[in-house]
Design brief:
By secondary structure, this protein is α+β, with helices and mostly antiparallel strands. The protein has four helices and nine strands; from the N terminus they run E-E-H-H-E-E-H-E-E-E-H-E-E.
Length: 132
């Protein structure tokens, strides 16, 4: 049986940290299944800026911003989540989970292209001679 993992984004540390308490992880996933909008307020009550959930059974990442998080925090959390989606996250058991798994953002915040760095936005249009 594939395991579920939960990570909280802390703006002060600029990273996602794994939650190792099974009951708290189950609480986040139960909110995700029953009432996803409740995750935003639950995250802010627990002092998180964003929540990143990985469901090993579905091989899927889910990102939820905490209620009241600012645009800069959302952009940074989204970039960190995109990185986790590509390379996975090393968990406490020593395994890397979520490599190349799809990412779903449940929050209604519309940050569009702002989640992408300038380099990745313009990289396809450059070569060694400069910008085309």
């Amino acid at each position: 049986m594939a395991k579920k993992h939960c990570f909280v984004y802390l703006r002060d540390k600029d990273e996602f940290q794994e939650i190792n308490k099974t009951d708290l992880v189950e609480q986040y996933f139960s909110y995700l299944a029953e009432e996803p909008a409740k995750l935003e307020s639950y995250a802010s009550q627990n002092g998180s800026d964003a929540i990143l959930l990985y469901n090993g059974e579905e091989n899927k990442w889910t990102l939820v911003y905490a209620q009241g998080s600012g645009i800069v925090t959302q952009r940074t959390a989204r970039r960190r989540a995109d990185s986790a989606r590509r390379i996975g996250i090393l968990v406490s058991t020593g395994e890397r989970v979520g490599i190349n798994a799809p990412l779903v953002v449940l929050s209604n915040a519309n940050i569009g292209d702002l989640s992408k760095s300038v380099q990745s936005k313009y990289l396809p249009h450059t070569d060694l001679r400069g910008v085309d």
